[in-house]
Amino acid sequence: MKLLKKINTIYIASDHAGFPLKSLIVKDFLSKKDVKYVDLGTNSEDSVDYPRFAKKLCKKITLKSMGILICGSGIGVNITANRHSHIRASLCHNALAAKMTRKHNNSNVICFQGRPFVKKKIFAMLNAYFDTEFEEGRHLRRIKQI
Question: Helix H segments across the chain?
């Protein structure tokens, strides 16, 4: 995972609807990689407000870190994250989208829907996301226009 060697920390957060997927990602993906990760909550399926957790994660993101956000649809955390000027969050539903958002948009936060999810598909998206480097070139020019 090329990109994981270049970043210091992956932050992960979710609301209650994303908690089962977040727990799975922490247990079966992040804990098995050679990368520091920080779980910013929530820590149960008790109802919480997704903006609180998305904002908490966005405040932590630097040039040397990335994030994973999860809510029921993935849309709420994606909208909230993109309100921060240093964040380029992408809601992904397949591995190609996860790859292209890194390659062309230099995304630093990947968002997922927590209901429903397929473990194999989520892990394929995470692998594509963290295996892909930003191409720069014409894409950097476009990102600067955002």
Answer: 19-28, 50-60, 75-81, 95-105, 119-131, 138-143
